[in-house]
Automatic annotation (TrEMBL), chain A:
This is Carbon-phosphorus lyase complex subunit. The gene is phnH. Gene3D superfamilies: Bacterial phosphonate metabolism protein PhnH. NCBIfam families: PhnH_redo (TIGR03292). One of its GO terms (molecular function) is lyase activity.
Automatic annotation (TrEMBL), chain B:
This is Alpha-D-ribose 1-methylphosphonate 5-phosphate C-P lyase. It is an enzyme of class 4 (lyase). It holds the Pfam family PhnJ. The keyword Lyase applies. Keywords: 4Fe-4S, Iron, Iron-sulfur, Lyase, Metal-binding, S-adenosyl-L-methionine. One of its GO terms (molecular function) is metal ion binding. It comes from Celeribacter baekdonensis B30. It catalyses: alpha-D-ribose 1-methylphosphonate 5-phosphate + AH2 + S-adenosyl-L-methionine = alpha-D-ribose 1,2-cyclic phosphate 5-phosphate + methane + 5'-deoxyadenosine + L-methionine + A + H(+). The keyword Protein biosynthesis does not apply.
Length: 193, 288
């Protein structure tokens, strides 16, 4: 185990995680908004935002799927030391982490059951950057409409069509965080005009 | 430094509650099961709300706690002191200054804005519970969106009383999908639930958390020929003269004398400070 795996946790876990959670809550409750989230550092290529998010929400009770380039021994060691979550395949994951291409197709993840729609994966998508343009969002948490650049269109429309089942998404880049719950309806800004 | 972990709960518990809150936000009106903890207060005193508040608080927050609209009742004072001691956060009685508001059975009169969180204490989260006691069945009814029983109940109210007699905990439909218990708030408050703030609901004994995100459609159930009516006492407030607020009726002597006062103490005090006067307000001279 590399020494890098032992560092990068919160300085003051209760306070740092409370601020991180509020960013996670605000972004998921108001799709299209972007908040800063920081405090934890995991080995590359995990962004500070994604590291902080999984350190805030995950523990030994939440199996994590590491997709593609995010599935390295360094990252597995970091998760084992700081979080203790089991590393699993997509079909058992409560949380998934990776870039969009590695996470696709998202149909592999559990979407919940009609009686327990909450038993679905929260997917954390690592992005190059977060921008408030591209796709038009509407639905709960959005006053009229909001804009957010998404890595794709059809999978998110399909996901919203599954409501009340479906996946919930976080997008991370650097220390920035955006959220997209299953309730958000997504349309292409170009097509809408 | 406080001797307690920040906001009382241990970190593992807070993570579990936080995950439940986020799933609740993602599925508005759906009751997410969570492993409710024993709190240093009895069930019925807001153990669910306290756990949700504890999971949400940051050191920068300003907390307001109300019980039936009042900041100075036993329940509100003890919960406020609890978080002053365990989280060392700022507290306030002013609705506009608060970032987190924990409430028992009221929504403040002053409209809430973005950046605020309203946490409700919920005794029975399942709106269908008094119609169907089995959890297995109510869970199936929510899954199948089978809410006919609730409409029959409201119809029976009309058949028996001539109007829908449910006056608090009046069922709502959230975003066209889940029927939800808004907690025992008066139905007067139901229209306010379409708001800019985040609304979180915690039921400690029943181990459920649910949520309504901002700007979410919350519709009180009704019939075309019996539309929803957010009624209130037909009086102005006797202290501040407000005609648009929810009122408490207070008996003031042994001869049946009574007065009506705003249930939201902060709102009423704010109006009086601005010079509004009601029927029983002390006169200027008497006050001096």
């Amino acid at each position: 185990m590399d020494m890098q795996s032992l560092s990068g946790g919160f300085t003051n876990p209760p306070q740092d995680s409370s601020r991180a959670f509020r960013a996670a809550l605000e972004t998921l409750a108001r799709p299209g908004t972007i908040h800063d989230i920081s405090g934890a550092k995991a080995p590359a290529p995990v962004s500070e935002a994604a590291a902080t998010l999984i350190l805030t929400l995950c523990d030994p009770e939440t199996p994590i799927y590491l997709a593609g380039a995010h599935d390295t021994q360094d990252i597995r060691d970091w998760v084992a030391f700081h979080i203790g979550a089991p590393i699993v395949g997509p079909e058992r994951a409560m949380f998934a982490l990776g870039i969009w291409e590695a996470l696709s197709p998202i149909t592999a993840f559990p979407i919940g059951t009609p009686e327990y729609p909450d038993r679905s994966t929260t997917v954390i998508v690592e992005m190059e950057a977060l921008r408030q343009d591209g796709m038009r969002l509407s639905g709960p948490g959005i006053k009229d409409s909001a804009l957010l650049a998404l890595p794709d269109l059809a999978p998110f429309q399909m996901n919203a069509g599954l409501f009340p089942l479906g996946l919930d998404f976080y997008f991370t880049a650097g220390t920035r965080l955006a959220g997209l719950p299953r309730t958000t309806r997504v349309s292409d800004l170009m097509e809408a005009n | 430094m406080s001797d307690y972990n920040f906001a009382y709960l241990d970190e593992q518990t807070k993570r579990m509650i936080r995950r439940a809150i986020l799933k609740g936000i993602a599925i508005p009106g759906y009751q997410v099961p969570f492993a409710s903890r024993e709190m240093p207060m009895p069930y019925g005193w807001g153990t669910g709300g306290v756990q949700v508040t504890a999971a949400c608080l940051t050191p920068e927050d300003t907390l307001k706690v109300i019980d039936q609209g009042a900041d100075d009742t036993t329940n509100a004072v003890s919960i406020r002191k609890f978080f002053e001691k365990t989280a060392e956060i700022a507290v306030t009685e002013k609705t506009g200054d608060a970032t987190v508001i924990q409430t028992r059975h009221r929504i403040p009169e002053e409209p809430l804005g973005e950046g605020q969180i309203l946490v409700y204490q919920v005794p029975i989260p399942e709106p269908l519970r008094f119609l169907e006691p089995r959890e297995t069945e109510t869970r199936k009814m929510h899954a199948l969106e089978e809410y006919g029983l609730m409409h029959v109940k409201l119809y029976e109210d009309i058949a028996r009383h001539g109007h829908i007699a449910t006056s608090y905990a009046y069922p709502v439909k959230v975003e066209g999908r889940y029927v939800m218990d808004p907690s025992p708030i008066p139905k007067f408050d139901n229209p306010k639930m379409d708001m800019a703030a985040i609304q979180l609901f915690g039921a400690g004994r029943e181990q459920r958390i649910y949520a309504v995100p901002p700007y979410t459609k919350v519709v009180s159930l009704d019939f075309e020929d019996h539309p929803f009516d957010p009624s209130k006492a037909d009086h102005p407030c006797d202290l501040c003269g407000a005609e648009h607020t929810y009122l408490d009726e207070v008996i003031i002597d042994d001869d049946g004398g009574r007065m009506f006062v705003c249930s939201d103490t902060d709102y009423c005090a704010g109006r009086q400070a601005k010079g509004h006067r009601g029927r029983l307000s002390p006169t200027e001279e008497a006050a001096q």
